[in-house]
Amino acid sequence: MARRWSWILASLSLLPARAGAIPGIDGHMTDPDRRLGAVDKSAIEEHLGNIQGETHIDVAGWIVEASDAELDALGSQAYRQWNIGKAWDGAVFFVIPPGRRARMVLDPARRELTPAEQARVLAADNPALNLRARIDRLADATAAILRDKVFRARPQGNKDLRGALAYGLAAMLLALAAGFMSLGRARARPR
Asked: To which H or E segment does residue 142 belong?
């Protein structure tokens, strides 16, 4: 009897996730129905991880089969349940139904993309392509915008000599003040 139950439970775990259910998160790209092959999944994970490392923005997604009416609600629920972007500067989350246009979920309090940028990213999606190509196109379009914003806000390699000098001078003055205070306390202690 126990064998029969274990076989039934194992069989149920291989069934596709039913519409309306939020599965457990599985990396940057959650694919509960295993529509991506292992090589494609690994490549997508690396691609999205690189974008996240460069921009500090969590770019993630979920491949899900659901009706158009359910996609936005399911995407928002998964975004909250999985804490997308909580440990990062922000997030861009895609809900990708096979054969239909992807949807985007952003935190309303801190939208990483303007409506025009969102439209530009979603225009890169082509439902006729295979899933890996679609995800790569969405990721590349998102990364191009995010990199431009991040590097414009934090230019790399530009040195601010005046700022560095002022900061260094202030730090030295604080260190000297701390040293004199320590000496004063050491002398004031009774022996």
From this structure: helix 131-153
